[in-house]
Amino acid sequence: MRVSLIITTYNNPGALSKVVESAAHQTRLPEEMVIADDGSREDTANLIKHFSENAPFPVIHFWQEDKGFRAAKARNEAVKRSTGEYVILLDGDCVVNRHFIADHLSLAERGCFVQGKRVHVNRDVVASFGQGQANSVPVLVGMALTFSISNTHHLLRLPSSFAVKNRELKGIKSCNMSFFRDDIIAVNGFNEDFVGWGNEDSDLACRFFKYGLRKKVHQFRAICFHLWHPTNKTASNGNKELLGAAIASKEFFCKNGIRKED
After folding, report:
1. What pTM value is reported for the model?
2. Are 106 and 240 in contact (CB under 8 A)?
3. How far, in Å, are 18, 82, 116, 177 from residue 91 at the CA level?
4. ∠ at Cα 50 (47, 55), nearest 5°?
5. Which of 54, 83, 173, 212 has the most CB atoms lying inside 10 A of its own CB?
6. pLDDT tens, 114-154?
7. Which strands make up the sheet holding 112-115, listed edge to edge?
């Protein structure tokens, strides 16, 4: 199955360099990488160009003008430029271990989208954390014992564990999510009415549920390592209202998405 890995970024080339490097060391490589750039400066473009010259897969860079947080539009534009039957979303501050793509594919199932899990890399070790650390069990255990990473229960790879399916909005994070291409096309992608931080991913999940999909979650597979960075996560009140309207609605198709409808 052809896989497109879409990575969202904004003015954090230091983190992005670690993320794309970890994507290049997968046991199962994606067929392509699409960078959904929400208006980063030239240093990010230079990084992507340099990485793409030796990447083990094609790299597509979509850039849009910086007009505030517009992750919904950036991801839609990246989906439009992708060619994979299966799409994996990842944020540009989330390093992955070598099993990440293979895990998402092993969990892929018609009638579901996959919600991955994340381990938080704390501020004191961000500078030294990269794909080498993400792939080293002894290093990760040491970090867990010294409280350098949190949500460490996701590090276990238990052979007897299983995935859970539900239709709950709790735990929805588009920083680590995957789905079949025809499913995101069917609901018309992310709703671009969501501008500013927050809720655009929950809106997508809400419409996935109304379309008939279930959320599939595995506690110990498809894990990413979120690198600490300063944030301003003040959700727009307008976004909360939009999500409330989506929850109350019976519609799964948004008008202001991949395709624009009056």
Report:
1. 0.96
2. no
3. 12, 16, 12, 10
4. 110
5. 173
6. 999 999 999 999 999 999 999 999 999 999 999 999 999 99
7. 59-63, 32-37, 3-9, 86-91, 176-180, 112-115, 214-217, 164-166
